[in-house]
Amino acid sequence: WKKMTVSDSEEVTNPLLGPEIRYKAYPYRWFQLFLYCLLNVANAFTWITFTTISDKAQTYWDVSIFWIDALSEVFFIAFLICIIPGTWMIQRWGLRFAILAGAIFTLVGCAVRILGKWSFYLCLLGQSLAAIAQPFIINTPTLLAANWFPAHQRTLATTIASISNPIGVAIGFVVPPPLVNVPSDMVTMLIVETGVVALCLLPVIIFFRGKPPTPPSGAAQSIREENFLRSLKLVCLDWNFWLLFLQMSFGLGAFNSLATVVNQLVQPYGYSNFESGILGALVIFWGVVGSAIVGILVDKTHRYKFFLILCLGLGALAGCGMALSLRPNMFWLLAIAGSLVGLTITPTLPIAMELSCEIVYPVQEFVPTGILMASGQLT
Fold this sequence. Notes:
Elements: H1 2-6, E1 10-13, E2 22-25, H2 29-47, H3 54-61, H4 65-113, H5 120-138, H6 141-148, H7 154-174, H8 176-179, H9 186-207, H10 218-221, H11 228-236, H12 239-266, H13 273-301, H14 304-324, H15 331-345, H16 348-359, H17 366-378
Antiparallel strand pairs: 1-2
């Protein structure tokens, strides 16, 4: 551990507090970020597994489309139920506990889904266990950035951590259709997914650390509000935070809805499972590109409000364009419109997460982040 973190580290002395206070940005921080991204990808991949093969899943289990949608929607319900106790546990036991809990619930949930061979409800149970992991994962990008990264890299780190979730969704869009050519291939797909998730999460369980030996910046060392109920009160009484919450409910809610019903949305117009997967992947790909560009610009300018309003306005126009593009034999037009939706809407996630922390400072980062993420689950 010492060899990996102390060598080649960047050191900054705080001139106000004297030479004995030294901040180090450890090179190992990028590996920690990579491990977090592996977990976020695995959980998102698990969430969205059945979206682009909803028709085949319905045939395999002989249930209504309501129950197939429930395999995705259980993540929204579990998040809303677990957000408060999950946030309290993160505050009490820290980032490493949260990541380990997220990894274990995701891995166990994937394994239990294989039992769906005998009953649909066992598959739903597995999805529910993986869903419990979500609050421990998607609430913590800002905490990870604060614990490991210097101030000038925090927005970039939060952006990378946040967009790993959509990347997992993109994989979940494109991988299942080729694996499930006929409904009877369902269990084989679940076994393959469980093996891939296990390979991703074992390094997370073994190597992830909650924080470095010394803080990367003064913000990481500063005194934060530790009382959980007082933190909730500070957040709930902040009018600016609720304006941000309302904005987030539109952007994240639209993304979650599209991810859940993309196959049902395009199938009536004659598009296949594979095409619905490609459409979803394009939304995510251009969302990653947009988040990278906007993340760098925000890091340099700190103009959170400007870029948030800009992305939301353009996203609303792109969403209208996508709705108008839903026509038979016009997949190229639908793909362009979907790409524009991803390019404009996805960057609002990391911007809003970082801005929420700034608004309610000195509340610890994961408290406003968790409540903010609940907005998309509600809508």
